Amino acid sequence: MTEKAYAAGIQSGRLPQTDYAANFTDLHPALDAHEAAVAADRCYFCHDAPCMTACPSDIDVPLFIRQIATGTPEAAAKTIFEQNILGGMCARVCPTETLCEEVCVREVAEGKPVEIGRLQRYATDTLMARGVHPFTRAKATGKRVAVVGAGPAGLSCAHRLAMKGHDVVTYDARPKPGGLNEYGIASYKAPEGFAQAEVDWLMKVGGITVENGKALGRDITLDGLKGDFDAVFLGLGLGGVNALSLEGEDKDGIADAVDFIADLRQASDLSALPIGRDVVVIGGGMTAVDAAVQAKLLGALNVTLVYRRGRDRMNASVFEQDLAASKGVRIVTHAVPVAVKGNGAVREVVFDYVDEAMQPTGAQLTLPADQVFRAIGQTLVGDGLPDLEGRKIAVTGAGRTSIAGVWAGGDCAAGGDDLTVTAVAEGRDAAEDIHTALSR
Amino acid sequence: MANLASDFVGIKSPNPFWLASAPPSDKEYNVRRAFEAGWGGVVWKTLGEEGPPVVNVNGPRYGAIFGADRRLLGLNNIELITDRPLQQNLREIKAVKRDYPDRAVVVSLMVPCEEHAWKAILPVVEETGADGIELNFGCPHGMSERGMGAAVGQVPEYIEMVTRWCKQNTRMPVIVKLTPNITDIRQPALAAQNGGADAVSLINTINSITSVNLDLFAPEPTIDGKGAHGGYCGPAVKPIALNMVAEIARNPETAALPISGIGGVTTWRDAAEFMALGAGNVQVCTAAMTYGFKVVQEMISGLSQWMDEKGLDSTSQITRRAVPNCSDWQHLNLNYIAKAKISQDDCIKCGRCYAACEDTSHQAIAMSEDRTFTVKDEECVACNLCVNVCPVEGCITMEPMAAGTTDPRTGKPVEPEYANWTTHPNNPGRVDAAE
Ligand SMILES: Cc1cc2nc3c(=O)[nH]c(=O)nc-3n(C[C@H](O)[C@H](O)[C@H](O)COP(=O)(O)OP(=O)(O)OC[C@H]3O[C@@H](n4cnc5c(N)ncnc54)[C@H](O)[C@@H]3O)c2cc1C
Ligand SMILES: Cc1cc2nc3c(=O)[nH]c(=O)nc-3n(C[C@H](O)[C@H](O)[C@H](O)COP(=O)(O)O)c2cc1C
Ligand code: SF4
């Protein structure tokens, strides 16, 4: 315990130095060879396996697990990477409990699925540890493709295009490539600089030039790219954040959860990162849970996650909710913020309890708060983009937009869940479609 | 990725994995799907002579032995040869071979032990464009009661005679499939060779009864209260099959006879082991029947990865690689001395090694109050039992002793020279080294 443990306000160094490392280690530690063999042995090699269908990137799960079981994790990794070049990151961040493992026949029958995510990590870690890249490029085609946004969608698209022999330039507004893998995913899901290591490994395929610090709309334009390249892929993600539209929302101490997480991900010394004593997170998705849990792990005394509907409507999975609870996060449901109080800086937030129809019940909740994180959704930002469907870029087929020669995928494109794995699959599919178009 | 292309007695296939003659290769529908899944070749389900086909039982024809988690380890069957009309099979074989010219299509045959029967079927098979024939001298049930299958395979003279008839009446390569239900596998192999066989394949299934129903007092599978012995296959038979393959490969008289290895091949590793002991390729039945055709993909990727790691660029380089090291007991080095060693870091303190050694071996493991298990080098004979019963792979290892050190069990120094039983002083029939 440090003297700052109970101090009010936003403070750094709330925990003893050693606690930071312990708090932010791997959420799901790697399997060793024996554990992997035992876990792999449980797979039934199902026909037309449900897990394979549930995987947004269509990884042949039974095959890769059998390859682990028969002592060739490297071959298993190839099976994974053929579908999903960021299979290493997906093994760490996929909500498997709502994807492959949810439909595993052993989950359905016994409530104990084959540990697909951890086995995937075992295989991909084994191959990546060798430092070699499993794919070689096809003969150079002389075609050039611009990829805007080097997140999972853009990286996956760039890699597949490079494999096909095209030359790719990735542009990203941020200083580092990786997108939310680098700036968004909870630290304890991908510790030890895995995101950058994975990007470096992916780049070994060759043929990809990385341009960071280049923003579309600021340094480059879509028209310019269309002129300079044979095709353009947009993997912009969701750069904006929804506001609460509350009076007092501009008070000090109120911030976007994604910015807090990005700062945390980039911090070289977590003990220097300030955190409130009483933290309130507003939202019910993965971002809200990640912000709440990481606030707690940084030493916040009271962390409350407040969601406007019931638990069953939360985007965060039951597993994520339980994780939050296990770290000491209090989850409040059916409550909508109505006022932020405080003199300059936030001091408390007032909520109306609402019913299923979102109507005020008359009851209220006031939570002390010296720090509030907004996590009620991200939005697409940008001008001169292709036509939208709702608030995202409209696409048909494998990511074709309303503008000829321009494809889009990942969070910025309509359709599909906002997940790393979905972004990877969409980037890959768009690359295949671009390749077909360029081969004509 | 290593090149898995295979050439077995002139029959080419993209990989050395063939489906054995059995239900997986029973009809065009299956074989096409098998080829789509990646199988290098098939041996078509055994054909019989023209006329009304055999009939199968209409009750259960399989029984099984399971391991933990209901893993199928051994399968027993009482199925006969194909029960579909000859002409239909021939039409289908022709269509499949036409559409998959790069895959091996071998036709398994079993007709009565009379020359005219063989003379009649060979030309119609040849006409399909098939790559070769396999003589089923192995089926141990039903057909053998009619003087075919294992009834032929158990009499070397018959094997030689029928093989010769076939060689004289067809240009196709002739593979002779052997039954393991015999005392010395080298005899039928030699007979096949003498008859002119291009290769032998083995093993067919082993006579077996998998279990007895203790309410009905009848063997299982039970058909209307009665059961019959069947043929055993699957992972459980692999050690028996491996030895038989090695016996033929090691025999100087048959060392040049190509072998197609069959019996429990379930993973790429099993295939590599069969090939290292002398097989030119492998055939698979139970693994496909347990996991479906897709299982071949793991065999392909695994064998290819292993070949890359070993720097082998052709499957022919695997064949016979372990044969020179497959010896007889009398030639094993008696001066080689090892001791078991338990890794305390890996030990989970279950005590199975202790129970095994204390109760049934050499009382060479000590157990302390706090459940620490250590090997007593002065008692350990390096039998390997503790290694085999330990649930943690790699926890107990066999550490060879360096020459010149003293074996605490015998008090004698470890001799650097190789010396086997043939020269051992305790051997009454020893041959003394020339002075
Ligand atoms: C906090 C948080 C936690 C998450 N946790 C998980 C999780 O555990 N598991 C999971 O599966 N998913 C998770 N997600 C969702 C997942 O991160 C996204 O679905 C995924 O990253 C989308 O990939 P993308 O490539 O479409 O976009 P992004 O990863 O957002 O990448 C977009 C890239 O485009 C760049 N860019 C944006 N605008 C421009 C421009 N104008 N010019 C140039 N470059 C630009 C950005 O800098 C960024 O690098 C989480 C999301 C958040 C916010
Ligand atoms: C149901 C069944 C039917 C079989 N029928 C034949 C057959 O018609 N002809 C034949 O040569 N072998 C037949 N076999 C034997 C297999 O071809 C093979 O030799 C044996 O199953 C061992 O291989 P495995 O362990 O991979 O199954 C049959 C095996 C099974 C299980
Ligand atoms: S596998 Fe089952 S369903 Fe199919 S034929 Fe046999 S007994 Fe009938």
Produce a short descriptive summary:
The complex is a heterodimer of chains A (440) and B (435). Chain A has helices at residues 17-23, 33-41, 50-54, 61-69, 73-83, 87-93, 100-103, 105-110, 116-129, 152-163, 180-183, 194-203, 222-228, 257-266, 286-297, 318-326, 420-439; strands at residues 144-148, 167-172, 208-212, 231-234, 240-241, 254-256, 278-282, 302-306, 330-332, 335-341, 348-354, 360-368, 371-374, 378-379, 388-389, 392-393, 406-408.
The helix fraction of chain B, in percent, is 25-40%
Shape of chain B: globular
The small-molecule ligands in this entry are: flavin-adenine dinucleotide, flavin mononucleotide, iron/sulfur cluster
Radius of gyration of chain A: 22 Å
Total helix count of chain B?
12
**Mind telling me the C-alpha Rg of chain B?**
25 Å
Strand order of the largest sheet of chain A: 3-2-1-4-17
What amount of the residues of chain B lies in strands?
15-25%
Q: What's the β-strand tally of chain A?
A: 17
Which chains share the greatest interface?
Answer: A-B, 18 and 18 residues
- What is the overall pLDDT average of chain A? 96
CATH structural architecture of the largest domain in chain A: 3-Layer(bba) Sandwich
Task: Quote the distance from N terminus to C terminus of chain A.
Answer: 66 Å
Average pLDDT of chain B: 96
Shape of chain A: globular
Instruction: Tell me the quaternary state.
Output: heterodimer
Tell me the total number of β-strands of chain B: 22
Distance between the termini of chain B: 54 Å
Unreliable spans of chain A: none
Q: What would the CATH topology of the largest domain in chain A be?
A: FAD/NAD(P)-binding domain
CATH top level class name of the largest domain in chain A:
Alpha Beta
